[in-house]
Amino acid sequence: MGFGAAVLLGFLLLQSGGNFGSAAQNFLVFGANETLRQTKQEAVTVSSQQANQTEQRRHPPATYRLKVYQLQTPSALSEKQRRPLGEEQPSPVAAAAAAFEPASGLNPSTSEPAKMESKVEAPAPLPAQSVSVRCGEDRVLIAVKQDFLGNGQLIRPSDLTLGGCAVLDTVDHIMLFQAELHGCGATLTMTEVSLVYKFALMYSPTPIASTSILKTNPVEVTVRCHFPRRHYVSSDAMRPAWTTFASERQAEQRLRFSMRLLTDDWLSPRPSNVYFLTDVVHLEASVLRGAHVPLRVFVDRCVATANPDPASQLRYPFVSNHGCLTDSKLTGAKSYFLPRSQEDKLHLQLKAFKFQQDDKNSVYVTCHLKATVLDDPIDTRHKACSYLTEAKRWVASGGDNNVCSCCDTSCGGQRQRRRPAADSAPRGEGTAALGPNLIEELPEPKPRLQTREETQDALSL
């Protein structure tokens, strides 16, 4: 078909608007369209070749290779590997778009990493390296470094207290505390073998200078003093293998007094210091002589207290006036001195008691003892007198009862005149103590209920 036929077909297309009613017209249109398509393709091919030739003349030919990287999460990769064959694979464009989606650990709205919760464990408490303790018989001494926390910072002494007691003194950055075993908020606990006194060393920091900030935390250090429950005030002295005349002479003049608790048969030491109010306390006072000179011991006075201080306000003197046992006269209890089996020992029986105002139920006994030679007579200053409640009179455990006649008044009279040889004999006085003795109450017995059958049997009898 020539150029005229193409023009004629184009004119017919414009006139008809693309709608033909008959088959002949459809055939003509098909042929015209086929001719027009070929003509347009030839024109486009020619134009493209001319444009390529012109572009090649301007720029030399070059080849570019674009590398495409596809980001995939491990879960997506594993899902892709698990996808069975024949299933439709995502297009590269969709894969690239999925690679730039927010990760699972990010917040989709803010694209910020999700906050991970972290557990912070408190460090385990370590033993204090800045505190040293020395436990005595009746008090405790505590030394604390001013670098209390071990961080190089010195704390203020006013911020540190021992159960409410302030620092006693500060020397060379060492703070000193001194307290009685029952003072400064101490608590007493008992185990099977020991008595434990516990103190609380409290550090309460105050704001720095004129600010209202704190840079340290409060700290509490527990201080414990352990004492054996079963012990005695003194024990037998150990003699040296050889002695000089001077040391032997000095030993003759040195006297050692002691007291201890005995069993009910007075034969052996009592293994426990715990008593009930129904028990009887058996005490033994003795003197240990350094040489062979025989001695006689006396209990001059005794006082019971709720703490180790014999001069404390809560006290009960039960032996006074140079050897008068007043407990039986004051309370009506059977308390008395026993007859002597040995001159250097004296036995005393005392009914157990406790202080009403003392919650710890502890009793300390402190006695002033005297010793004389056997040749010295028994007088008003050296005696052992007991009050008999049945007879209502004073009796002596050894000697004449007349020496006890002053127990109701005053026994501070003159001593009897001694022989010159007796004046050179060793004599002495000393103090011995026992405690703490713990007093406990017996549980109240439950009353036994009589059944009806027992009552009928009793009536029938």
TrEMBL record:
Composition bias of kind Basic and acidic residues appears in 443-455
**InterPro entries assigned:** ZP-C (IPR055355), ZP-C_dom (IPR042235), ZP-N (IPR055356), ZP_chr (IPR048290), ZP_dom (IPR001507)
Kindly list the biological process annotations in GO that this record carries.
Answer: binding of sperm to zona pellucida; egg coat formation; positive regulation of acrosome reaction
Give the region (Disordered) as residue ranges.
75-94, 104-123, 411-461
Q: Which GO terms describe its molecular function?
A: acrosin binding; structural constituent of egg coat
Signal peptide span per the entry?
1-23
Q: Kindly state which keywords UniProt assigns to this record, in alphabetical order.
A: Cell membrane, Cleavage on pair of basic residues, Disulfide bond, Extracellular matrix, Glycoprotein, Membrane, Secreted, Signal, Transmembrane, Transmembrane helix
Give any Gene Ontology cellular component: egg coat
Q: Which residues form the ZP domain?
A: 134-392
The membrane topology of this protein is: Single-pass type I membrane protein
Superkingdom, natural source: Eukaryota
List the subcellular locations. Answer: Secreted, Extracellular space, Extracellular matrix; Zona pellucida; Cell membrane
Q: How is it modified after translation?
A: Proteolytically cleaved before the transmembrane segment to yield the secreted ectodomain incorporated in the zona pellucida.
Q: Describe the function of this protein.
A: Component of the zona pellucida, an extracellular matrix surrounding oocytes which mediates sperm binding, induction of the acrosome reaction and prevents post-fertilization polyspermy. The zona pellucida is composed of 3 to 4 glycoproteins, ZP1, ZP2, ZP3, and ZP4. ZP3 is essential for sperm binding and zona matrix formation.
| Family label | Belongs to the ZP domain family. ZPC subfamily.
Domains as described in the record: The ZP domain is involved in the polymerization of the ZP proteins to form the zona pellucida.
Q: What is this protein called?
A: Zona pellucida sperm-binding protein 3
Provide the taxonomic classification.
Eukaryota, Metazoa, Chordata, Craniata, Vertebrata
